[in-house]
Amino acid sequence: MDLLAVGGGAMGRWFARALPGTDVTVADTDPVVAREAADVLSGRTLVDTDTDTDTDADDTDGYDLVCVAVPIPAVEAAVAEHADRLREGGALVDVTGAMAPVVAAGREHAPDRQRLSLHPLFAPERAPGRIAAVPDAPGARTATVRRALERAGNEVFETTAAAHDRAMETVQARAHAAVLAFALAADPVPAEFSTPVFEALAETAAAVTGGEPHVYADVQATFDGVDDVAAAARRVADADRETFAALYREAGRPLSQSGDGDGDSDDAGSGKR
């Protein structure tokens, strides 16, 4: 099976490794990143494939899989540029983290190809884990991808673009904003003063701030919810004793629920763009 990984970063490499035995070609706007990824994956770059006159026909007439693993703002352009590299019966897959834009782009640029949008809910170095999946146009190729991810120890669960993007407003945008706000407001304290709550927050802050800031900036720009965190902090700051007690009880409600709780249709165009 031939894979074109659009994006040679950590997530693109993770996806390629999850499909053992696949012939990998890497495309990236940075040729150095493309070459490094190709070397790590024992593959080649798209430039190699396009310029090698001795390349076999199977390498030049398209790919069985095109996986888009680029920053959220670049996803629509990447799909538009590379979707037509798919062979008949091929599948467009993405691991970009925002479902609505990529599902819409796939319907526009790969309407007659299989399509599967994935969001690994973990950093590549922490794999395996849970993966949200929107099988917009499933088929044999997308089924092969799902089996490979599950064999690698991942739990793949189906959802819709609307339910996913709505959940990410809390799971990512609000959560990250709250953690960063705490870290910015906190003063360093001697270790002997630490409490379990403080230690948990400090550990979470370290995990969040140990990532790539531009990735987190893209999440904040894509999903609503950040202003809600600021408003909630102001409610706490302004509360009198009785109001604080009410807010305390309100905050104690369960934050997760069984199922995705989605009663909406799968509108690929919904959500903030």
Question: How would you portray this structure in words?
Answer:
This protein has helices spanning 10-17, 31-40, 46-51, 57-60, 75-82, 99-109, 140-151, 161-185, 196-209, 213-222, 226-238, 241-251; strands at residues 2-6, 23-27, 44-45, 63-68, 86-94, 114-120, 130-137, 155-158. With 273 residues, the chain is α/β, with parallel strands linked by helices. The protein folds into 2 domains: 2-159, NAD(P)-binding Rossmann-like Domain (Rossmann fold, 3-Layer(aba) Sandwich), CATH 3.40.50; 164-251. α8 packs across α9 and α8 (161-185) crosses α11. It is elongated and about 70 Å long. The model is unreliable at 53-59 and 269-273 (pLDDT under 50).
Strand arrangement in the largest pleated sheet: 3-2-1-4-5-6-7-8
Give the helix tally.
Answer: 12
Beta strand %:
15-25%
Low-confidence stretches: 53-59, 269-273
Order of helices and strands: EHEHEHHEHEHEEHEHHHHH
Class from secondary-structure proportions: alpha/beta
The fold-level CATH name of the largest domain is Rossmann fold
Proper CATH architecture of the largest domain: 3-Layer(aba) Sandwich
CATH superfamily of the largest domain: NAD(P)-binding Rossmann-like Domain
Shape descriptor: elongated
* CATH class term of the largest domain: Alpha Beta
Instruction: Report the average pLDDT across residues.
Output: 90
Q: In the residues, how many domains can be counted?
A: 2
How helical, in percent, are the residues?
A: 40-55%
Q: Span between N and C termini?
A: 33 Å
Major sheet size, sense and barrel closure = 8 strands, mixed
